[in-house]
Amino acid sequence: MSDARIRTLIVDDEPLALRRLRALLADEADIEIVGEAANGSEAVRAIAGERPDLVFLDVQMPELDGFELAGMIREHPRFRQTALIFVSAIYLAEFDRLRGYEAGAVDYVPVPVVLELLRAKVRVFADLYRKTRQLENLNVELERRVEERTAELAQANADLERRVGARGPADRSQVDPANDEPAEAQIRTGGNRTVRGWRQVGRARLEPRRRVGVERPLRVWHA
After folding, report:
1. What gap in Å lies between CA 12 and CA 66, rounded to an integer?
2. Which of 12, 24, 116 is nearest to 56 (CA)?
3. pTM above the 0.90 mark?
4. What pLDDT tens digit does each residue of the chain (223 aa) get?
5. Which of 23, 8, 5 is nearest to 113 (CA)?
6. What is the DSSP string of 144-179?
7. Which CATH architecture fits 6-130?
8. Where are the domains of the chain?
């Protein structure tokens, strides 16, 4: 299991809220804060530069709100796997929560942030993050082994073809015209008469014996 910390970006247009969330996350051993952003444009640049694993994203921001920014992140193939946790100081109706999950959010944190709740959410995400990374590493290792095995089989096949090619064409001088065996069979035995003789004996044993009749005088019994 990897012990790497979770690279985290905080996005919030309220400086006080941003500093408070940063202070709460600073005590989490699993979290490494790699950047901050005060709006959507700064967040886009920070995500492209720092490539965080996790983004705490304020829902209500000028220019780009959290939903729009989440959609942009999800559309980019490089950042599609970035986890998003929405932070909201306003009450979100079920429709807004559903909209956030559809945009790619993995969780919500209400403001004011409750430290125990934040820690619980971070622990759950950290465990999921490590298991996901472990699975990815196993897949990479499996692909590497498959490639190595494929290369070994290809090399073995090439060696076999070279050995077969080195033997050259069959030696037709070993074919005996008087032998009723096929030419290829004679070549495989190397013209060995002993081997051919045993084969002929074997065929003779397999042939059914013919019954030779002996004529005897017919006896006629008289009553």
Report:
1. 9
2. 12
3. no
4. 345 789 999 999 999 989 999 999 988 888 999 999 999 889 999 999 999 999 999 888 887 888 888 888 888 888 888 889 988 876 666 666 777 777 777 788 888 888 888 888 888 888 888 887 778 788 888 888 898 888 888 888 888 888 887 765 555 555 556 655 555 555 555 545 544 554 554 555 555 555 555 555 545 545 4
5. 23
6. HHHHHHHHHHHHHHHHHHHHHHHT-S--GGG--TT-
7. 3-Layer(aba) Sandwich (3.40)
8. 6-130, 173-206
Taking CA atoms, 132 is separated from 17, 135, 205, in Å, by: 30, 5, 70
Among 177, 202, 178, 176, smallest CA distance to 189 is for 176
Rounded-to-integer distance, Cα 187 and Cα 181, Å: 10
